[in-house]
């Protein structure tokens, strides 16, 4: 109902009478008033006049009703420990494909190698539950598809030269904009579900915790809608995965066209070791191929990649 009320408000700049809302929604004027009160409590600036109601301002909060085609799949929390933990529990209990857990703030957000992802208000923090119905050995391609879809979304929305850094960070001019962490569970050699956790610096300032980072507001000089980023990313990724038979075969090749990793000297940190060399290629399994100082090649499946130049 909130989504329908907002849709009516946004379809006209004029004041909308309670009678018009009541007739369009098929509910009483008292019920209309109660829904509007709830919207006001959620941060919507709605002016009540003798002639009716007018929406003056909407908060940039990814409430479920802001995604009319996905409302039943969006689960918003003002504050959580970790969206990844909630999403994993939901997935194990049967949550649907493309369910999303999104938070205004995380208290214990995490990145690769158990690092903390600082999640202050203004950023976009969410975990996506995917059930792609693919063999276990193809699971890594979904991660590359997600980072590819996000990179393209940022480029299309902002015009900024976003690039993917192996394995799936998003950088702009060498500074980190977004991080991604995925976990997978399988059954009988098939992927049961993949949880993809994403943190994007949108209208927050991450430099206090990570100096070599950036946010979209800093780069553009103005705020940008978190709701629009999430909606456009979900649409882009779903369209890509819906054509998975064709797209997942070419994901690595498409990803390499947008990467800032290849051709550079990098260090890759894993729980066991650090490897430094020239990033030559990404193979068909998603592994990074390094050329070491002695000329030998090393294949790295997972780790945190840091540019050396």
How would you portray this structure in words?
With 309 residues, the protein is α+β, with helices and mostly antiparallel strands. The longest helix is centred in the middle third of the chain and has 20 residues, at 139-158. A seven-stranded mixed beta sheet has the order 3-4-5-9-8-7-6, with helices on both faces. It is elongated. The model has no long low-confidence stretch (mean pLDDT 92). Helices cover 31% and strands 28% of the residues. Strand 10 and strand 11 form a beta hairpin. The protein folds into three domains: 2-57, Winged helix-like DNA-binding domain superfamily/Winged helix DNA-binding domain (Arc Repressor Mutant, subunit A); 64-256, Bira Bifunctional Protein, Domain 2 (BirA Bifunctional Protein, domain 2, 2-Layer Sandwich); 265-307, SH3 type barrels (Roll). The chain contains eight helices and 14 strands. The termini are far apart. Helix 2 crosses helix 3 and helix 5 (139-158) packs across helix 7.
